[in-house]
Amino acid sequence: MRFIYPDYEISRNLSRCIVCRACERQCSNDAHGYDEDTEKMFAIDENCVNCHRCVSICPTRALKIVKTDNTFRENNNWKVDIIKDIYRQAESGGVLLSSMGNSKDYPIYFDKLLINASQVTNPSIDPLREPMETRVFLGKKPQAIERGPDGSLLDNAPPQLELDVPVMFSAMSYGSISYTAHECLARASQKLGIYYNTGEGGLHEDFYQYGANTIVQVASGRFGVHTNYLNAGAAVEIKMGQGAKPGIGGHLPGAKTVGDISRTRMIPIGSDAISPAPHHDIYSIEDLRQLVYSLKEATDYKKPVIVKIAAVHNVAAIASGIARSGADIVAIDGFRGGTGAAPSRILNNVGIPIELALASVDQRLRDEGIRNEVSVVVGGSVRSSSDIVKAIALGADAVYIATSALIAIGCHLCRSCHQGRCNWGIATQRPDLVRRLNPEIGFQRLVNLITAWKHEIKEMLGGMGINSIEALRGNRLMLRGIGLNENELRILGVKHAGE
Amino acid sequence: MKRIYVNEKWCLACHLCEYYCAYANSGQKDMVKALQGVRINPRIQIEEDGGVSFAVSCRHCDEPLCLKGCITGALSLDDGVIKVDEKKCVGCYTCILSCPYGAIMPSASGSAVQKCELCLENSAGEPACVKGCPNRAIVYEERV
Amino acid sequence: MNHIIIGNSAAAIGCVEGIRSIERDSDITIISNENFHTYSRPLISYLLEGKTDEKRMLFRGENFYAENNVKTYIGRSALAIDHVAKTVTLDGGDKLSYDRLLVATGSSAFVPPIDGLSNVKHKFTFITLSDALALAKTVGAGSRALIIGGGLIGLKCAEGLHAMGCDITIADMAKNVLPSVLTPEAAALVEKRVLQNGVKLILSNTVTRFDSNAAYLSGGDRVEFDALVVAVGVRPNISLILDAGGATGRGIIINEKCETSLLDVYAAGDCTESVDISSGATKIMALLPNAYMQGECAGINMAGGEKTFDNAIPMNSMGVFGLHMMTAGVYEGDAFALNAKNGYKRLFYKDNLLKGYIMIGDVARAGIYTSLIRERTPLDTIDFDLVKDKPQLMAFSRMERQKKLGGTTA
Predict the structure, then answer these.
(1) How far is A27 from chain B (nearest CA, A)?
(2) Residues C139, C225 within the same domain
(3) Domain boundary at C251, C272, C302, which?
């Protein structure tokens, strides 16, 4: 007996199907089949993860995926998903796994913030006619101007990351995503003058050539970390936490530790790659400071060090500690951030929204007079250029994007990464699937996306009468809340629309 | 001279090139009308085995053995493109015997051969296989 | 440069195109003893069949001579070559001077001396358009035709006459049809198809004598006919070179550049003999593709270019009553056999090389096999098991495929 009816059904328009079998050949979940006798296609709905690979590739638009109308008795408390989760766990006895970000119906503060525009006074600027600066520098800023004996300016700036647009691709390990996906990110970063992040899986030797646009990560498992690796990138990031699964570590199953993955991670083929929940050498800000300085020592103080944390309840105090640890940049990952695999309960119930975390961190650092000690980078579901503008107005120096980037190269958010059969060649190591993502195409799509966003950012800046992204940072007067309560407005540091 | 090149690294064995080819050469304006219920006879063919796949179509050789061996003069070279005049062709298949790539095949009628003409002779105007390839495993470009 | 070409078929046309690939403005003169624009000889059976017509069977377009600036002596015969004075003498006594000469005189039907043959009123050979037109004028639906010879020409003639509604008998002294290109086993498939179409076969028989309209065969049969076609073989037309003192064997002897032993005299096509690289033997390979490529090679060299044609192999593609067959090379060495529902296949290989093959029925992509023979591809550099299964590029290495399909030259 089967308790669970498939969530989605494959709808095939037989008046359009030409039986080319592309759907069948492209589905790694075996949701499509071909019947030799009837010479017709058939579908197995329970195998479908709703990734739209077949829908996209069908040359005659004969396919669509529809939500099943098979219903339970309506119940606002016992919703369908809750009932199905219970069936699943009653069958398996296991922890529920999911991937990508928190998909539950929590408030999305970016959607409750509105951007200002100039009228009459402080006129707006046309970015097509006048220069508009989107470049930002990330890192600790000097406290004062210093001059040499001859009066010339001394370059006393600590190491910085220079970004043409205030966007970076956030950490996704080689292992969680494919070689080809990494190539897309690396090449796009180089082209765009931004950075991508290796995640905790080390850096494939083929990608050292993109080092000037690479942030290398050091996480609790320390996979693939060695001196050359640390020096290969433009910055080093210490991963303390991840928005999708704050407080827990990671687990790459041994089956995925194959070939290059094993070599890059420096662990034996077939061994589980377990990232512990904490760094076992960090139990205090002082311990963190030791790691920060160890890494600076290893990289000759030439590279900024980033400390990444998940947005959790007392994020502001933690960020303050990080700013005092010697880190150059603090990265905060909100509760909607993605992952290749995480327990569903953690994914959907732990952490706080990035907008609130950002506003409180920025305010706390200002209050303590240490805002210039660190740059603030935020991630965890930055979905558009307007989200970026809002994040910067709330106090961010730049944003991290990952899910948006993956969507640009084909991800359809089926949230099945953890199954390792990504039909789009992104979250998989199966060679036949990995090659579905031609970096020549993927890289260009990423460049297109960020270029488009850059245009939009300039339009919005111009509208506000601002000609430099730096001048927007922390400028919360450019934002108004809508439909927010007093507490939310206070934390965000914005007035309500109309005020 | 623009040519079709194949990079097997990116071929997905989806076989869509074959279907786009068949459609482009069907003379129909609608793919469904052109191909539904039809066993296609495309001018480009996928070879696949053990996880490797690639498309094969006419290379438009500089030293075209098909054309030199053609007994009727039905094959001709037109601005770097080897074309077949189906009215002249009698279906002797000497070109099939000669082509080192196996890129010429009998037309549906069997009384003549067909081959890739880079979609210059049909309404597609540019190679439909290239346009339809979802992963740029087939490209149409100028190379020295 | 002043070029003369004796002949007007595939080798001659190849020569014109070869010359014109090097020289735009040199003089080219074609001398042809047939009264036609260049046409495709192998198409004469298709003409009888109605699959082509005199217009469509032109080997090149009607404007070919004008477009290529070729002067023609159509319907004129070359009688002699003076290779010292560099002249060609035509019927009627005209002498034409040349700087370079191509002899592409082809071959003629061999008609053996048989008792009573001279008394047969409607007898034909089947090589030229004139032959075909004469035959077509004589026979019609219900005519009884006797074809002596079950080779390529005889079978194609039978197919043409069959379409015209003739009642056909083929007699051959060999044990099977197509003895020069098929094994008896393979020939049996063809014979079956021929018989299914109502054509009578009398094999292992010679004609001992003719009455005016009947043939007496060695096995005792008497076959009455309304038309007799003699298709027992062809002989290269070598007399011009032989008379001029040039080297000849059964055919005119040429080197890789298609030069004869006479200075500035080239020869190409069915009148020549050359090395079959599949067997290493020197032989006459009367095949249109070889003729064209030899002609083209000769033309390029005549115009001062550099070209060798050194990879000739015997090969044939032929359809008889809808049954397609392809053969190439020699049938030596080990054989790989495949008898499928829709085909018969034999691959012959020796010394790490594919030497020859026979395919009947399913002939898809056979050119890949031909190429293995022609290019002398060492079999240990490809996956021969894959190739045995079917002709495919998958059998080559990834790098080799990248060269073939990916446009890399390295």
Answers:
(1) 10
(2) yes
(3) C302
Written as one string, the DSSP assignment of A465-481 is: T--BGGGTTT-GGGEEE
Residue A425 has pLDDT above 70, yes or no: yes
Tokens of B58: 């006419």
- Among residues B97, B77, B76, B93, the alpha carbon closest in space to that of B85 is found at B76
Query: Phi, psi (5° rounding) for residue C285?
Result: -115, 85
- Nearest CB to C368: which of B48, B94, B102? B102
Does residue B109 belong to the interface with chain C, where contact is any CB pair within 8 Å?
no
Q: What is the ipTM of this complex?
A: 0.96
Tell me whether strands C252-253 and C272-275 are parallel, antiparallel or unpaired.
parallel
Question: Which is nearest to A238 in space by CA: A292, A195, A296, A196?
Answer: A292
Per DSSP bridges, beta strands A495-496 and A479-481 are parallel
Quick: pLDDT tens for C280-309: 999 999 999 999 999 999 999 999 999 999
Q: Which residues on A lie below 8 Å from B12 (Cβ)?
A: 25-26, 435-436
Domain of residue A315, residue span: 136-496
| CATH code, A302 | 3.20.20.70
Containing domain of residue C368, as a range? 324-405
% of residues, chain A, pLDDT over 90: 92
The pLDDT mean for chain A works out to 95
- Total structural domains in chain B? 2
Among partner residues C60, C61, C317, which is closest to B96 by beta-carbon distance?
C317
Q: Write down the pLDDT at residue C410.
A: 46
Query: Contact partners of B by the rule of 3+ C-beta pairs under 8 A?
Result: A, C
Q: What CATH number is attached to the domain comprising B126?
A: 3.30.70.20
Specify the number of domains making up chain C: 3
Is C405's CB within 8 Å of B56's CB?
Answer: yes
Contact C367 B105 (CB under 8 A): no
Structural domain includes residue C316: no
Full residue range of the structural domain in which residue B21 is found: 1-57+120-144
pTM for the model:
0.93
Q: Between chains, do B135 and A57 touch, taking CB under 8 Å as contact?
A: no
- Asked if B16 and A59 come within 8 Å (Cβ–Cβ), the reply is yes
Q: Are residues B87 and B124 in the same domain?
A: no
Q: pLDDT tens-digit profile of A7-59?
A: 999 999 999 999 999 999 999 999 999 999 999 999 999 999 999 999 999 99
Q: Could you give the CA distance from residue C9 to residue C60 in angstroms, rounded to a whole number?
A: 10
